[in-house]
Structure to design on (467 residues):
């Protein structure tokens, strides 16, 4: 291992190569290319290996970040990926889509000097290095405890619970409603940001650990939670937030007005972007308006751009308040997405044949701060104008699908349909039922869902050991 803390500070964060905007806006290939070995080692050598590392506390799944970075610095990549997998069964996913700049990297001591370590890129490097080696190490699994756990939902929270519990000797079955595992990782994130093959590889790792996977199984319809409790000792609900929000403005029932869920599912999970090779019905839109400013809005806009449309993101606040990750905003701008800030859609108009062909908007200005502390956008009187569009994608948020709550008596839910849990354990109001991820918090990040899964797995294990 390199000797820590006795070197001159290197504040030059190594950039990760990516495809040029001119090339990538014409295809769905992954944009960021990952660190080559030499760059990864250079970046790792910048780490101070702090005696009291604050980056670990910034990671919702508690990865020993300095230890895996020091493994890279020592060029012992096999040891590095083992360190990550002690806590994280989805390193290739997290290395690509986690908001590291707001979590582990925000806690890096070098941040105060403007040179924080690129922790997420190093995590991705190790995961990709492992994949390039071919056969992966499968850690030993303890003798079966005889206890059985049902996991509802094959997204980040469910995969984390399954990975943690199988490595503690419990039998785990994941029930996924769709025909593919991964949840939002496969239906909600485009190929150019997270290739599906990577998600499949991470899921295959869990399968090889012994997790039993059942797809096309809708809990609440195929079987209820109560029915599963007759067979399993515990149930974890990680069914995500699949109910899209709309603005409830005139014209939302016109053809060509999509929710982000529908638009991205058609493109990602049903390969709409490969039409006519894959026959998912999708119209070739020429002018697309995307409503919202988060990562989902960026994903929708960049997808539409790749299909040949002129794309505008319409957001009611200024650029500096966009909630999307900075690198996704920059990618969208580089590729040619047009941004209309301080703009609010108020109605959609049709062409007389049931298809949207215009969006009426209002200009906004910032007023006094509201309860959140942000200045509230307010309309500018008489500023109405129309934008020509033949498709609109509404990407303003989601709440949980109400199916499980409606078919599980005694399960407490909040005002948005989210399942109410104990924050420290993930326990719900029902005995032997835990929950975590977007079904509890509403749409959030992959790593927060995984963190919730880790807490719930710990609590489920304690319960199973008490039987």
């Amino acid at each position: 291992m390199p000797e820590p803390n006795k070197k001159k500070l290197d504040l030059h964060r190594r950039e990760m190569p990516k495809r040029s905007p001119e090339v990538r806006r014409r295809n769905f290939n992954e944009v960021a290319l990952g660190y080559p070995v030499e760059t990864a080692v250079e970046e790792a050598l910048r780490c101070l290996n702090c005696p009291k590392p604050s980056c670990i506390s910034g990671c919702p799944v508690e990865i020993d970040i300095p230890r895996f970075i020091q493994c890279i610095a020592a060029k012992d990549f096999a040891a590095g990926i083992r360190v990550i997998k002690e806590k994280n069964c989805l390193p290739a996913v997290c290395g690509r889509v986690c908001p590291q700049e707001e979590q582990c990297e925000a806690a890096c001591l070098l941040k105060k000097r403007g040179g924080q370590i690129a922790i997420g890129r190093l995590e991705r490097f190790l995961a990709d290095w492992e994949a390039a080696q071919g056969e992966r190490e499968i850690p030993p699994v303890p003798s079966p405890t005889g206890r059985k756990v049902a996991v509802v939902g094959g997204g980040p929270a469910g995969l984390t619970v399954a990975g943690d519990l199988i490595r503690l000797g419990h039998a785990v079955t994941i029930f996924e409603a769709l025909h593919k595992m991964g949840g939002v990782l496969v239906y909600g994130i485009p190929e150019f940001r997270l290739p599906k093959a990577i998600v499949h590889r991470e899921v295959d790792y869990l399968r090889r650990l012994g997790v039993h996977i059942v797809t096309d199984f809708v809990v609440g319809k195929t079987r209820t939670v109560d029915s599963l409790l007759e067979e399993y000792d515990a149930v974890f609900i990680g069914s995500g937030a699949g109910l899209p929000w709309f603005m409830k403005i005139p014209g939302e029932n016109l053809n060509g007005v999509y929710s982000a869920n529908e638009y991205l599912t058609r493109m990602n999970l049903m390969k709409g972007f490969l039409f006519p090779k894959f026959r998912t019905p999708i119209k070739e839109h020429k002018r697309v308006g995307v409503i919202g400013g988060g990562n989902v809005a960026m994903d929708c806009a960049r997808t539409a751009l790749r299909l040949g449309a002129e794309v505008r993101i319409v957001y009611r606040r200024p650029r500096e308040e966009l909630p999307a990750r900075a690198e996704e905003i920059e990618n969208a701008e580089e590729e040619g997405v047009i941004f209309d800030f301080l703009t609010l859609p108020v109605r959609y108009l049709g062409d007389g044949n049931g298809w949207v062909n215009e969006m009426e908007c209002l200009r906004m200005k910032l007023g006094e701060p509201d309860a959140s502390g942000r200045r509230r956008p307010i309309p500018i009187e008489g500023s109405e104008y129309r934008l020509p569009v033949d498709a609109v994608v509404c990407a303003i948020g989601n709440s949980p699908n109400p199916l499980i709550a409606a078919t599980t008596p005694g399960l407490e839910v909040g005002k948005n349909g989210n399942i109410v849990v104990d924050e420290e354990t993930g326990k719900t109001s029902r005995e032997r039922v835990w929950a975590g991820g977007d079904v509890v918090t509403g749409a959030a990040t992959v790593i927060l869902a995984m963190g919730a899964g880790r807490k719930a797995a710990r609590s489920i294990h304690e319960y199973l050991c008490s039987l």
About this structure: The first strand starts at residue 148 and ends at 152. The radius of gyration is 23 Å. Residues 26 and 421 are 44 Å apart (CA to CA). DSSP finds 16 helices and 16 strands in the chain.
